[in-house]
Design a protein that fits this description.
59% helix, 5% strand, single chain, mainly alpha, DUF2029 domain-containing protein, globular, disordered N terminus, transmembrane, 497 residues
Length: 497
């Protein structure tokens, strides 16, 4: 157990009195959180998706070469989460292996989530089992586990800390958490704003919130702008230029995954849907005022979902992580404040998730929800053999390159790794933008390197159903057969010159 509540909730605007500091916790609790998290990481460590390997490649290059880029030969800015890369790089310096570093970050982030949820529950006088329920319903979510290596776990940790800071009315701490949130994903600013709007106890110290956030986030954005050529990652341009997959975009994307991965999708989204229902009940009945800030977090998840729907971006499964985390945490905390009979609303999804996660494999060999064209093992085999076949010379690859580049540790080239290939896309976005947006984009790319030519690539890696005789070929198969996915086939290497 994490210990009995030692906080008193006083209605109105009076201060919440907390008998112990928000980060305090028994060593037994920390040990349980860490041990369970480590076991879950072992479960998924062989099922890391392609985009996660992009992050791991960045972390390895930063840690071992002091170089910000997907490949050692080029500086790039396609890591969506600078904080995730920097944390992984820091652990890689010590552990000397990015996957071990990922394990450390995964465990640490989940421990932080558990402790900050504990701080929130103690301050609001909520039942202790609500802490465990909120933690478990996030930890076991099949969709979130299908994006380990990306910033989903870090997102949960910083949002947990943000909620605790709001509940405890700590403006400096809230500002620190806000800065960390936008360094985790810049779109988390939406959630920060919604929670702050509901946190009346922070309003008088708004300047502390602002200064704290700026102090944390500004140094990175200034460095990125001047040194990397853009304050925000290039993925903001890449992803917003991509539209629907067939008839599916972000808003109706869960229906696509329901078609391809029905059990995993139901278990991933069910807590969030129940969270929306709980949010309606709380708002409609003006239920317990102590749920105002947890409800704000849930509402922020809804706002985030609506914002992404309005943008019309593709339904990449990890894009749903902020909304799922916010609404799932709110559901568990709300249920813990209600009649014990409502426990089933969160217990049933948790039991279902645990059963599914165990049944999917011990350990997993492929993510429960994936849009990759090949399995992690197939990409690992291809990448491991590629450097010898090319003699270390650059190879151009269309589509997915994260795992291939990671296991090859060589120059695998496309727009994610060689920024020169992105220049036409960036210029096209700037040309088509409104005057105000164009001014912002031009400012963002003021220091962009436009002089370095693309890497010369004498080899090309392509996906095909019929490899040419004599060309090296590797099988590529996947459980994903939705829009944009090729029929199972082969990756083949061609020497073009």
């Amino acid at each position: 157990m994490l210990g009995a509540p030692t906080a008193e909730w006083i209605a109105g605007d009076r201060q919440v009195r907390v008998a112990s500091r928000w980060w305090s916790g028994s060593m037994a609790a920390v040990g349980v959180l860490a041990a369970v998290s480590a076991g879950v990481f072992w479960l998924v460590h062989s099922a890391i998706i392609d985009d996660s390997y992009i992050t791991l490649s960045y972390a390895r290059n930063v840690a071992l070469h002091g170089h910000w880029g997907l490949i050692p030969q080029r500086t790039s800015n396609t890591a969506t989460s600078p904080l995730n890369v920097l944390l992984l790089a820091g652990f890689t310096v010590v552990l000397r292996h990015p996957v071990w570093a990922l394990a450390a970050v995964f465990v640490a982030a989940n421990v932080v989530l558990g402790l900050t949820l504990r701080a929130t529950a103690r301050a609001l006088g909520l039942r202790e089992w609500g802490v465990w329920a909120a933690w478990l319903v996030v930890l076991g979510n099949p969709l979130l586990l299908s994006a380990v290596g990306l910033e989903v776990t870090l997102t949960a940790a910083v949002l947990g800390a943000l909620l605790a800071a709001a509940v405890l009315r700590r403006p400096w701490l809230f500002g620190l958490c806000a800065g960390l949130a936008v360094l985790t994903r810049i779109d988390l600013a939406v959630i920060v704003l919604v929670v702050f709007a509901a946190a009346a106890g922070l309003w008088r110290g708004w300047w502390k919130v602002l200064l704290g956030g700026v102090a944390v986030a500004l140094p990175w954005f200034a460095f990125s702008w001047r040194v990397l050529g853009s304050a925000v990652p290039d993925t903001l341009v890449i992803k917003t230029q991509q539209k629907a997959w067939g008839s599916y975009q972000f808003g109706n994307g869960p229906l696509l995954y329901l078609r391809s991965y029905p059990a995993a999708t139901v278990l991933a989204f069910l807590p969030a849907l129940l969270g929306v229902l709980a949010l309606v009940v709380v708002v409609a009945t003006r239920a317990r005022r102590r749920l105002v800030l947890p409800a704000a977090l849930g509402a922020a998840g809804v706002v985030h979902y609506l914002a992404y729907t309005a943008l019309g971006v593709p339904p990449y499964h990890w894009y749903y992580a902020p909304s799922l985390v916010c609404l799932s945490v709110f559901l568990a905390l709300a249920v813990s404040a209600a009649h014990p009979a409502t426990l089933a609303l969160v217990a049933v999804p948790i039991v279902g998730q645990v059963a599914f996660d165990a049944h999917h494999g011990l350990p997993w060999r492929q993510a429960a929800i994936t849009t990759n064209w090949a399995t992690p093992a197939q990409y690992a085999t291809l990448g491991s053999q590629l450097a010898a076949l090319t003699g270390g010379r650059p190879v151009h690859a269309g589509g997915e390159i994260g795992a291939i580049a990671y296991f090859c540790d060589c120059a695998v080239v496309d727009g994610f790794s060689d920024r020169a290939e992105l220049l036409p896309i960036i210029d096209n976005v700037i040309d088509k933008a409104s005057p105000a947006a164009r001014a912002l984009l031009e400012l963002n790319y003021r220091f962009l390197d436009r002089a370095t030519p693309p890497l010369d690539t004498p080899f090309t890696l392509t996906h095909t159903q019929n490899p040419a005789p004599g060309d090296p070929a590797w099988p590529a198969s996947s459980s994903w057969h939705g829009p944009g996915a090729p029929v199972d086939g082969y990756y083949t290497l061609t020497h073009t010159r």
